[in-house]
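Researcher: For the annotation table, I need structure tokens for Type I modular polyketide synthase. Please keep the output clean. Sequence:
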Amino acid sequence: MAADVADRDSLAGVLAAIPAERPLTAVVHAAGIADDGLLDALTGDRLDAVLRPKLDGAWHLHELTRDRDLSAFVLFSSLSGLTGGTGQALYTAANAALDALAAHRRAHGLPALSLAWGQWERASGVTAHLTDADRERITRSGLRPLSDTAGVELFDTAVSAGALTARPLLVPALLDLAAIRARSAAAGVPALLRGLVRPARRAAGAASEGTRSQFREQLAGLSGTERDTAILDLVRRETANALGYPDADPIAAGGAFVELGLDSLTAVELRNRLEAQTGLRLPATLTFDHPTPAAIAELVGGQLAVGGQGTPSGPAASGGSAGSLTTGGGVGGLYRRLFDAGQMDAAAQLLIVASSLRSTFDAADRHDHSPAPLTLTTGPSRPNIVCFPALSALSGPHEYSRFGGLFRDERDVYVVPAPGLPEGDLLPDSAATLIRMHVEAVKKVVGDEPFVVLGRSMGGCVANSVVAGLEAEGIFPAGLVLVDSYPIDTPSRPGMEWWNTAMITALVERFDRFDLSTLDTRLSTMGTYNRIFADWQPTEISARTLLVRAEQPLAGTPTEAPGLADWRAYWPLPHEIIDVPGDHFSILEEDTGTTAAAVAKWLASLA
């Protein structure tokens, strides 16, 4: 028999159908999902989605079976509920609630045991989104993966022990205490484990006032070249720590963070580590705007040389809340003020005007300004994937960090950056110049191998033009993948007047996570691309086209009349459709796993 345990009536029906001659004697509740994300990106809906299968289901089982003579009531919780986990606020809360339910049942004389599991080798629905690099980082942090055999043995042992102890919570996990102690100087020891692990002495990696002073004093005694080397070593070392590597050997000075597997969560951890070591206040867009260890080292070195505190990140930065765009001058402040006033068209025009102040290059100079494509992963399967980021103020190769990681060791995945996002970059003078650059970049990375071209949002429009340009030269991609892309003229189409407001609202919510002073360049870059693509139209191509559509609308999207399907991404030329969980942004953020799986399934159909 099957039932959704989060549906109380459905569960009650299944329990009522159990024959009296074979009564229910034990309950094991293992349902759950994860939805990782930074704290300020979380919403009530996302919390409800995580709590529903795990906590609602457990509570219904508790209520509907508490009058039955059970020998065991076992809840599958997670170690994250006890120690916390980067980006796991929702999952942590759900598991902590399970632990509390077990304690509640025990207090009322009912059987209960919550098992706070550690890492398993086998991927599950909860861990499917983790890349190999993520798993390696978890292992290096001191949590070894459990095999199926070891997990079953631990389950049997824990249930037996649970029947003999008054403790409602046990932790079946395989800990590497030496690894935890080795990392404790920089990261500390979780409170739960301090009875097992004696912290290492705080040394040069410790995050304290003394550490900051010590690092600065170390620099003061060095020559210029030695000083630069020490700062670069610091950045490489803290990058390794953030990614879970035992040392900095794999971290090349000029290696792109996105190629190393740094995503939004580990980027925040790296920034925090560097702030703790240097005493500087670094921008939230640190790894976006300075995409290599060498680039960050140059920034840090420059700020330390003048004795500065770095980019303000507190209330003084804007006169308002930390990182807020509510007040302040510059393009970012004006953009937010127009948004708050409901003047969406004026906000868009502001970016167009700001873009006129940016220096440009033409097709003749394109080779001097073409960013090098980045390799996210390699593998033997074909076709390869060449990705194009969206062209918003927060776009860049980092958009595909998680996506690429999910194809690790399977196939080659590349990202072709657009120029103009790092400060000081020139911008293309026309859409034709950009497309010509991108066509040449694709030819260089794919060689004679079969490949598909993929773009998300406005990057899908770019990808369509790139495929058309390649086909015009006799090079035929195996396919085009559009990730929730709309034609650029969507806001002017009948019934789509809401679209611009919904997109700008969602972008501004993301802007608020960053420091006001860091966004002016990126906003003027966004304005430039909006201007040069203003008259763009999709081109008919011979390649098969897949449109990956988000199943969830953004806030402000009309989902009633004239019909639910009308808000979803669409494409005016022939294409296939796969719908995936998430909204316009989350399908390449916390919902990347299902998006990558959908793309992989479609790629298999191309053979």
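Researcher: And a one-line annotation?
Model: The first strand starts at residue 26 and ends at 29.
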